[in-house]
Automatic annotation (TrEMBL):
Organism: Pseudozyma flocculosa
GO biological process, one term: proton motive force-driven ATP synthesis
Similarity comment: family membership: Belongs to the ATPase g subunit family.
GO molecular function: proton transmembrane transporter activity
Matching Pfam families: ATP-synt_G
Gene Ontology, cellular component aspect: mitochondrial membrane; proton-transporting ATP synthase complex
Protein name according to UniProt: Related to ATP20 - subunit G of mitochondrial F1F0-ATP Synthase
Disordered: region residues: 1-33
Subcellular location: Mitochondrion membrane
Phylogenetic lineage: Eukaryota, Fungi, Dikarya, Basidiomycota, Ustilaginomycotina
Compositionally biased intervals (Low complexity): 20-33
Keywords annotated in UniProt: ATP synthesis, CF(0), Hydrogen ion transport, Ion transport, Membrane, Mitochondrion, Transport
């Protein structure tokens, strides 16, 4: 949800920037269009290669999904398109060096361990935003756990090898 709000703000900022008709804005727009086209071409070629390699697997999965295959494919394409638009609008890029990753984690760790930072959050009222981020992170973690377990609740354990047979010690 936060990602979409950020994307909408970015689009709003971009549309305000289009009111000026400077030559630099036109060049920036054409360079971002070229980058978007290049990303689209790269994704298309990767998609074609994946279809060649995983064709039989995809057909088998489609057969298992039955009537759900078409809506699932449509929704995945829509999600991919939205993700691509957000990626382009936000100017996102993967980290280019290990030092950028380590500096980000250092910053997070320094804030987490600084009592003054937490006091500042409480006085400025930003604790709500941090709480929402925490709930989002917990939700993503929980969904990952469910996917990993392949079950909504608990792990399937084979207790027949442990010799308990219902007896409690």
């Amino acid at each position: 949800m936060t990602m979409f709000r950020t994307a909408l703000r970015s689009v709003g900022r971009q549309s305000r920037g289009f009111t000026s008709s400077s030559k630099a804005a036109a060049q920036e727009s054409s360079s971002s269009s070229a980058a978007a086209q290049k990303a689209s071409n790269t994704l298309q070629s990767l998609s074609e290669k994946a279809q060649q390699i995983g064709g039989p697997v995809v057909k088998r999965v489609e057969g298992l999904l039955g009537g759900y295959s078409e809506p699932l494919q449509y929704n995945l394409k829509v999600a991919g398109s939205v993700a691509k638009q957000v990626y382009i609008a936000e100017g996102l890029a993967p980290p280019t060096s290990v030092s950028s990753i380590t500096s980000a984690y250092r910053t997070i760790w320094s804030r987490v361990t600084d009592a003054g930072y937490w006091g500042q959050l409480l006085t400025k009222g930003q604790w709500k935003q941090v709480g929402i981020y925490a709930v989002e992170a917990y939700g993503i973690f929980t969904i990952g756990e469910m996917i990993g377990r392949r079950s909504l609740v608990g792990y399937k354990l084979d207790t027949s090898k442990h010799g308990h047979h219902g007896a409690h010690h």
